[in-house]
C-alpha cells in the first residue's frame, strides 16, 4: 500500500533502516499465538526509546494510519493483530530492552516495555528478590504486553495479576505526547491513577514504554504436593485446609481433570506420578520468604490432616527441587499438550467466584453432553482464583471435522450465570468483543468508549480491539 511505503520512508529517513521491517520479514509481527492478519502489506516500526517512539508518531501524524502495539506476541485473543479496517503500522517494543534500575531497598524495578518477563524475573533473583508475576508465556512475553493485557498466571493467588505488580508507568499517546515517568512511589494519591487505567487496556489507550514493578522478598524455600481428590468440591475443601495450615505461604493451587492429564499423556507431554488414574488432581505450592518458617513441616502436617479428613485418595509430597519441578512439569504439560494438538480444539478463559467452581464444572459438563457428545471437556487451571480453563477436544474414538462454536458460548453463559467473567486473564482483543458486549451493561460500555476517546480521539490506536464489531479482516487460527 502506498501509504505504508510513505510511512516507511519517513521513518527510515529519520531514524535509519534498522527501525523499519517490511515485506516477508514483517509477517511474523502481524498477529499473536492465535490470530494472524490477512492484509498483504505490513509495516513494522521498531523504536529503541520512548523519545524515538514519540518522534516517530509525530512524524506520521498527518497520514491516515492506525497503530497496533506489539510486545512478545504471546497473546491468545488477537490483541496484537491489525483488524484491517485501515492501513496499520505495527509498533514493536522488541528493541526497548533496558532494565533501567533495580532498587533492592525500595524493592522495585524500572524496566522498558520490551524486556522479556523471564529476563526481568532473573534480574530480580540476582538482586535477591523476586517478581510476583509469572505465567506460561514468560519466555517470550514482554513486560509492556503483560501489563497491557493484565496477564495472570499460576501465582495470582498470592501476588495478584500483572497490574497488582505496578507502581508506575511511562507511556506515549497516539499523538506522540509522553505521559508518566514510571514513578517509584509506593504512595501517591494525586488524582486519577492513569497507570492503572492503561494497565489492562490492551494497547487501546496508549503505548506502554516503561514500567515500575514491585519486587518481593526472595523465596527461601518452596514446597509442592500433588493430591488426588474426588471432585472440584473436595479440591476446594482441601484448599481451605491448606490455607488454614500454611496461611499466606500458599502461592499456587492448580486443578486438573483426569481427562486433561490423560490427554497430556497421549500427547507425550507429561504423566501423573501417582500410581492410579484419578478423576481430579490438585497441585498446591507454597513458599517461605523467611528462614524461620518450617514449610516442609507445614506440608507434612497438611498431608497428614488431609488423609485423616478423607479429603484425598492419594498424594505425593515433593522431596527435592527436582521432584517439585516434576510436579509442575505435569501441570505445564497439560497446557503444552493443548498447544501441540493439531486437530479441532476450542479453548476458553472464564472465571467464577472461587466457591462456584464446582457448579461451573458441573454446568460445563452438562452443556457439553447436550451440545457436543462427540467432544470432551478438559479442565485445568487456577482453582485459587476461580479461573478454570476449559479446552474442548474430540473424543479419542471420534474424529469430527470441527467442534461447534456454540460450546464457547455455552461456557460463557455458565460463567455469567454464576456471576463470573467471560475473560479471566487473556483479555478481550478481537476474540471476546461479542462476549464483552453481552456481559457489560450499556452504561459501562459507553463509559469505556468515552475513556478511549479521551486518550485516542482519532481512534487510531489498536482499533477493533475490545469495542468494535468483527470486520472479517483477521483469520482465526484458533480460539481461546
UniProtKB/TrEMBL annotation:
Q: Which GO terms describe its biological process?
A: respiratory electron transport chain
Annotated ranges, domain FAD-binding PCMH-type: 35-218
The keyword Membrane is annotated on this UniProt entry: no
Give GO terms: molecular function aspect only.
catalytic activity; FAD binding
Q: Give yes or no: UniProt keyword Flavoprotein.
A: yes
In Pfam terms, one family for this protein is FAD_binding_4
Q: Please name the PROSITE patterns in this protein's record.
A: FAD_PCMH
- InterPro entries membership: FAD-bd_oxidored_4_C, FAD-bd_PCMH, FAD-bd_PCMH-like_sf, FAD-bd_PCMH_sub2, FAD-linked_Oxase-like_C, FAD-oxidored/transferase_4, Oxid_FAD_bind_N, Vanillyl_alc_oxidase_C-sub2
Which co-factor is required?
FAD
Which branch of life, at top level? Bacteria
Family membership noted in the UniProt record:
Belongs to the FAD-binding oxidoreductase/transferase type 4 family.
What protein name does the entry list? FAD-binding oxidoreductase
Amino acid at each position: 500500500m502506498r501509504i505504508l511505503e510513505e510511512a516507511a520512508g519517513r521513518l527510515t529517513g529519520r531514524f535509519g533502516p534498522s527501525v523499519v521491517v517490511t515485506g516477508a520479514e514483517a509477517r511474523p509481527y502481524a498477529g499473536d499465538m492465535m490470530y494472524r492478519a490477512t492484509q498483504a502489506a505490513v509495516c513494522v516500526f521498531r523504536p529503541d526509546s520512548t523519545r524515538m517512539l514519540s518522534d516517530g508518531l509525530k512524524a506520521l501524524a498527518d497520514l491516515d494510519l492506525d497503530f497496533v502495539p506489539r510486545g512478545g506476541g504471546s497473546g491468545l485473543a488477537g490483541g496484537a493483530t491489525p483488524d484491517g479496517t485501515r492501513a496499520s503500522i505495527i509498533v514493536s517494543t522488541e528493541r526497548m530492552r533496558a532494565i533501567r534500575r533495580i532498587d533492592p531497598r525500595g524493592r522495585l524495578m524500572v524496566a522498558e516495555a520490551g524486556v522479556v518477563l523471564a529476563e526481568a524475573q532473573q534480574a530480580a533473583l540476582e538482586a535477591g528478590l523476586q517478581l510476583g508475576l509469572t505465567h506460561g508465556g514468560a519466555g517470550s512475553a514482554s513486560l509492556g504486553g503483560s501489563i497491557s493485557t493484565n496477564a495472570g498466571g499460576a501465582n495470582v493467588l498470592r501476588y495478584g495479576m500483572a497490574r497488582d505488580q505496578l507502581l508506575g508507568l511511562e507511556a506515549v499517546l497516539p499523538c506522540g505526547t509522553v505521559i508518566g515517568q514510571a514513578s517509584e512511589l509506593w504512595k501517591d494519591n494525586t488524582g486519577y491513577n492513569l497507570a492503572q487505567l492503561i494497565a489492562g487496556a490492551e494497547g487501546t489507550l496508549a503505548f506502554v514504554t516503561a514500567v515500575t514493578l514491585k519486587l518481593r522478598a526472595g523465596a527461601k524455600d518452596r514446597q509442592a504436593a500433588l493430591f488426588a481428590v474426588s471432585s472440584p468440591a473436595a479440591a476446594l475443601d482441601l484448599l481451605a485446609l491448606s490455607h488454614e495450615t500454611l496461611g499466606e505461604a500458599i502461592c499456587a493451587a492448580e486443578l486438573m481433570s483426569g481427562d486433561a492429564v490423560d490427554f497430556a499423556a497421549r500427547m507425550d507431554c507429561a504423566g501423573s506420578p501417582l500410581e492410579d488414574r484419578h478423576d481430579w488432581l490438585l497441585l498446591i505450592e507454597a513458599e517461605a520468604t523467611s528462614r524461620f518458617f518450617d514449610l516442609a513441616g507445614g506440608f507434612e502436617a497438611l498431608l497428614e490432616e488431609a488423609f485423616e479428613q478423607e479429603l484425598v485418595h492419594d498424594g505425593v509430597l515433593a522431596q527435592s527441587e527436582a521432584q517439585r519441578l516434576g510436579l509442575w512439569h505435569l501441570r505445564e504439560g497439560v497446557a503444552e499438550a493443548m498447544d501441540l494438538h493439531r486437530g479441532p480444539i476450542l479453548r476458553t478463559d472464564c472465571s467464577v467466584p472461587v466457591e462456584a467452581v464446582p457448579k461451573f464444572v458441573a454446568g460445563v459438563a452438562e452443556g457439553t453432553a447436550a451440545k457436543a457428545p462427540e467432544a470432551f471437556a478438559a479442565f485445568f487451571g487456577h482453582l485459587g482464583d476461580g479461573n478454570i480453563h476449559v479446552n474442548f477436544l474430540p473424543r479419542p474414538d471420534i474424529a469430527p471435522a470441527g467442534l461447534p462454536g456454540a460450546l464457547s458460548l455455552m461456557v460463557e453463559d455458565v460463567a455469567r450465570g454464576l456471576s463470573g467473567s467471560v475473560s479471566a486473564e487473556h483479555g478481550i482483543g478481537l476474540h471476546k468483543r461479542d462476549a464483552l458486549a453481552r456481559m457489560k451493561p450499556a452504561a459501562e460500555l459507553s463509559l469505556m468508549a468515552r475513556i478511549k476517546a479521551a486518550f485516542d480521539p482519532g481512534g487510531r490506536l489498536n482499533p477493533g480491539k475490545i469495542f468494535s464489531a468483527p470486520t472479517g479482516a483477521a483469520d482465526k487460527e484458533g480460539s481461546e
